[in-house]
Structure formats: structure tokens, C-alpha cells
Amino acid sequence: MVGRREDAGVVERVDVAAFREEVEWLAGLPTRHSTSAAYGTAVDRVAARMVAMGYQTRRQQISVGAKSSQNVIGERAGADDGVVLVTAHLDSVNHVGGPAGAAPGADDNASGAAGVLELGRVLASGSWRHGVRLILFGGEEQGLFGSKQYVAALPPAERNRIRAVLNLDMIATRNTTTPTVLLEGAALSQSLITTLANAAATYTGLTVETSLHPFASDHVPFLNAGIPAVLTIEGGDSANANIHTANDTLNHLDWAYAADILRMNAAALATWLEPIPRPRPAGPIVSWGPGRIDIFTTG
């Protein structure tokens, strides 16, 4: 399968060094437990990154049990009314150590959160028919609180605007001999899964596995509300014994593998967002030579 020009353009713009820098910063915090002060530090960082990329950014207050946390939302309008969501959870957890325990969450889910920022950066330089909305959720590890409350607060008209939801959760640990990615959704997201699988075959060496039995990540509330959503997650994720512990550290990550998942996601997003071709001036081009401005004659 040959990639389209606009797909190839966004794939080429994926910068693994920029992605790695964000993962390292997030995993460098002592924890990103949803109700911790350090989580607030992470929120400030990612909100500033969205603003710097040109997204209109806001914070949504959510409840996590008796305490509070935040979702971070960045918006970039398209030419039409539709919108595509790129989501991940920002929080981390240490099940044994509790809220005060070390929870670097390098794979779960600094990798997904940094992936949303990198895809947002890549998409910010394009011209799209539909809008881009980046969302980083809090409270995922305590029971999908951020995504459940976000979806519950959406008016019907706003739900109808959403063309696709791409959720990233654990994209940087290679648990299988063959690099594998799991695409998880439901029947209403089958077309999204197909687009992602085609993108993986075109631009990466990933082996694709699929599931129509959604489970335990932030795509689930969208699917329950009838909104097409899909999760991209590392293959063999159940074999990753480091998550939810102090051992979910940077040294377990495979940057080249994560970059392939990001390239697959970028190509699929370009399809769902529908690029707007840049207009070409009418008339022949009169070139003035190297280093000079080309002149387009129009009549």
C-alpha cells in the first residue's frame, strides 16, 4: 500500500528526540498520582506545551473520590465543524506504595501523554478540515474518572461533532519478540482500526493485533457513549510487570518501537482530519534563479 502525500508528511515530522524529552521530564517527577502536588506540576507543564504549539488550552476540574484533579484540554479549530480527539491519561500510580510511593510511570503513561503532545506538535503545522482536540486525563488509574466525567459533561451536539477518538496508553515497552501493537475498540470503531492497521503496514514494521473487547482505559467511556474510539497500546501489555510500581522507569523503554507507534497514529490522524490542499497560484512560474523569490504570473 502506498501512502498518500499528506500521510507521509506527518509521518516524517514525528521527532523521536522531542517525544523522548517529554517522557523523560514526566517520568522525572516523583509521582503523577492524580491528587498529588506533583500531578499539578505535570498539568502546568503539559498545558504550557499545548499553548506553545498554538492550541487554545483549558483545564477541567474533576473529582477523584473525595479529592480533586484536572483534565488538560487543547483545541485547534478546523475549517469544518468536526473534531478528532487525541487522548491519554497523565497520571501514574504505585499500587503497593500508595499515593506517597514513587510512581515514575515512564511507560504507564508518560509514553502516552508525551505521545499526545508529539502528535499535537506534528498536526499543528497542517491545515485540516476538522479540528484537533488534545486531552490529557487525570484519575485514570483510580477508575477512569477524568474520561468518564469529560464524556458525561458533553452536550449531545458536542458528542455529534466527534469523528474519532485516538487514545494512547503504554506505547513504549516492547514485550514481544516481534514488535507488536494492539488496536482495541468496538464494532462502531472498526473503520478506525482498519485505518490504523493500514497505516502500520504502510509506514512501520509493526505487527498488528486487534480486539473488539474494550477494557480499562480512557477509550471506554467514549465507546459506552456511542462515540467511535480506539486504543493503541503496546502488544503483550499484560506481560509488563513494571507498571503501577516504582520500577516503571525509563530504562525499560524502546524509543524506536514507540516512534513506530507514533508514526502509525500520525498517518491515521491525517486521514481522519482530512487535509486541505494548499492553493497553487494560477499561471506559469517564472524563476529568478537560486536564492531568489519565484514569481507567479497570473494573467
From TrEMBL:
GO terms for molecular function: metalloexopeptidase activity. Keywords: Hydrolase. The keyword Hydrolase applies. Residues 71-267 form the Peptidase M28 domain. The keyword Hydrolase applies. One of its GO terms (biological process) is proteolysis. SUPFAM superfamilies: Zn-dependent exopeptidases (SSF53187). This is M20/M25/M40 family metallo-hydrolase. It comes from Kribbella sandramycini. The lineage of its organism: Bacteria, Bacillati, Actinomycetota, Actinomycetes, Propionibacteriales.
